[in-house]
Specification:
The complex is a heterodimer. By secondary structure, chain A is of the alpha/beta class. Chain A has 2 domains: about 50 residues; about 90 residues, Cupredoxins -  blue copper proteins (Immunoglobulin-like, Sandwich). Chain A contains 3 helices and 8 strands. A 3-stranded mixed beta sheet of chain A has the order 1-3-6, with no helix packed on it. Chain A is elongated, with a radius of gyration of 23 Å. The two termini of chain A are about 45 Å apart. Chain B is α+β, with helices and mostly antiparallel strands. Chain B has 2 domains: about 30 residues; about 170 residues, 3-Layer(aba) Sandwich (Glutaredoxin). In chain B, strands 1-8-7-4-5-6-2-3 form an 8-stranded mixed beta sheet, covered by helices on one side. In chain B, β5, α4 and β6 form a beta-alpha-beta unit. In chain B, α3 packs across α6. Chain B is elongated, with a radius of gyration of 29 Å. The chains are: A alpha/beta, B alpha+beta. At the A-B interface, β5, β6 and β7 of A face β1 of B. β6 of chain A pairs antiparallel with β1 of chain B.
Chain lengths: ~150, ~220
Amino acid sequence: MTTHQLLRRGLWALLAIAAVCVPAWAAFAPIHSDSRELTYEIPKGTFARRQAGEKFDLIPSEIRLTIGVQDVLVMKNHDVVPHLFGPVLIMPDQSFRLPFRKASTYIFTCPLHTSGLLTIVVDPEPELGWTRLRWRTAAAAQRAAAL
Amino acid sequence: MKSTSTRASSGTSRPRASASEALPSPAGLSRALLVSLLLVVGLAAQAASAPELRGGVFEPPRAAPDFSLKGTNGAEFKLSSYRGKVVALAFGYTHCPSVCPTTLAFLAEARRKLAAAGADFQVVYVTVDPERDTAQQLKGFLASFDPTFVGATGTPQQLAGVRKDYGITVSDKIFVETLPKSSYFLDHSSFIYLIDRGGRIREMMPYGVSADDMEHDVKMLLAK
């Protein structure tokens, strides 16, 4: 067998191993997240901008979280006046950290939105196997699209 | 022969250590390193396993605005009179079809789970419907969940002031065609504030949390 043939065989073997190992890793490896917090901030001057008639959304009307991945909602008020942010009144320079432990859809009244509601959808932690593989693939696609 | 090992200075009898005494032996150094390592590991483990509050936590916590309303016992109700206890502050109305009964039922369950510690846990329920919720009405309603729960009502202006201080929202009356005008409904904030013994708002429990979570957090606040 020539060196060239040996190299080709080695390459095919490596590809075959990768074809098995990568999906297996994606389906069964534990999920690691740099931060489980999703943070929204009220910048300084928000009240003044609103008083001047400017209209803008500080936070989307629907927020999506995933248990075990990103399951803590953090809201920070850097403005000089208290703000009703989602469900709670947050004082200037105060933060509010809300962890979610159960997958569900949480609906809060929220005067910041025209609907008057803030919906927080908390998805369950992707289960081992096919669900986790699909979740990882979707997350990778999302990251690639954001680049 | 001149002694070089010790020299007593005036006013002290402490001998000066020799160079070999000042430096720890290799065994001593290893022991010190081991103790330091164990200490660091112990502290890290403690920090990692330190229980956290399960509700939404405010940082830094602010003083709970005090208010004075009419209590379910007919006397003046002041929130500050419950300093020293952990207070669960909820807003609602006695004709509420689902949210309030669910909330009060799980608060009653949490209090039962707390057993003796529950003596320092006080549930305060402020009405958002002063038109129908008299002190007597509130008293009967709350007693059906737990006789220790206290309620408060007041004039629409007083209650609006309290709601503003706590960021509580309430809708206009919602009428149903098939029901008489007196049977209206209200949409209102459904979360519960937890106020610590020092009268500071420590956290917010969203609607739907379990009695176990409530018990867990109240225990933590009672311990502080």
